[in-house]
Amino acid sequence: MIVREQLVQTALSIAAIQQDDGGVPWPEGHVDAWNHIECLMGMTVAGLDEPVKRGYGWLSRHQRADGSWAMKIKDGVAVEQGGESNHAAYVAVGVWHHLLVTGALPDDAWPMVKRALDYVAGLQTERGEIVWERDAQGVPAPYALLTGCASIHQGLRCGVLLAEHLGDPQPHWELVADRLAHVLSAHPEAFADKSRFSMDWYYPVLGGAVRGPEASELIDREWATFVVPGLGIRCVSDQPWVTGAETCELVLALDALGERDRALRLFSDMQHLRHADGSYWTGWQFANLKHFPHERSGYTAAAVILAADALQGFSGGSGVFRDIHALSPQQGTCGCPADLPR
Question: Above 70 in pLDDT, residue 273?
C-alpha cells in the first residue's frame, strides 16, 4: 500500500508538469479537459491547493459559450475544435469531489458545471445514449461510445448532487442520467464496438450505471481476457501491454462493488510502474519487457492517487466513485462536515 508521504510525492509529480497557465498536459503537450480534471482531483486529495486553484481557473477560461471545451488545447490554443461530451460531463465529478474533500467549491464552479451538463444533455438521443461529440461546425456525432457514456453517467449524478446541495435543482439532468443508465445496462447495440478496449468492460461499473450482482457478473465475464496476474490489466485485449491508469480504474470499480481483496491485489500488482520520483510510467509491454509508451503521465499518477484514496480513505472524497447515488455532504457520509458552505 501507499503511505501519505508517497501519495503527496505522486501528486507533486503532477504539479511538476502543470503549465504556467494552469493546464495539466498529456506527455505529448496538449491538454484535454477530462484528463486535466482527473489530475486536479489527484492533487486535491494531496492538499495541493494552489495548483488545483490554477487548474480550475484554466477550465473556467477555456470553457466555450456552449458549455464545452475544445478537444485538444495546446499553449492555450485549441488545436482540435470538436467538443467531447464526456470531457464536459467530467467537470461535475471534479467539482463534487473538490467539495467533498475541501468543503468548498472552486471559484465560478457552479455556473461552469451548469453550462457543461446542459451541453451534455443536449447530445442525448431519443433512445437515451449520448453521442460522443459535437464537431467544429456544431454537428452532433452519429454514434455514442460506451466508455464515454459511462463516465457521463457519473458526471450527471454528481451534478444532481451538487444541484441539491446548492438549492438549485436541475431535475432534467436526473432524467437524462436515468435514461442513460438504462441504455448502458440493457442496450449494448447503442454503442460503437470498442470491446477490445478494457475500458468498455469495466466503465459501466466505475461510472455507477451498473452495480450489484449484474456488475459482479460483468467483471467476472472478462477478467481472464484483460487481467495479467502480477502486472495489472491490458489496455486492449489483443496486445501484451498493461497500463497503470486502466488498472487503477478497475481497482476503483472493484472497490465500488465491495471486492476489496481483488482491488488491493491489483493495486499492488501495478506498483512496478512507480518511478523513484513518485510519478508513474503509463504502461509496460510485457512481451518486449519495456515501458510503453516510454513516458510517465500525469493522468496515470492521478488514477493511482484516486485508487489509493478509495482503498485507504486519505480524504473525504474517497467514496466519489463508490457512492455515486448516495454520497451527500449533508449526510456526513463522506467524512465531511454536515454544514458545508453553499
Answer: yes
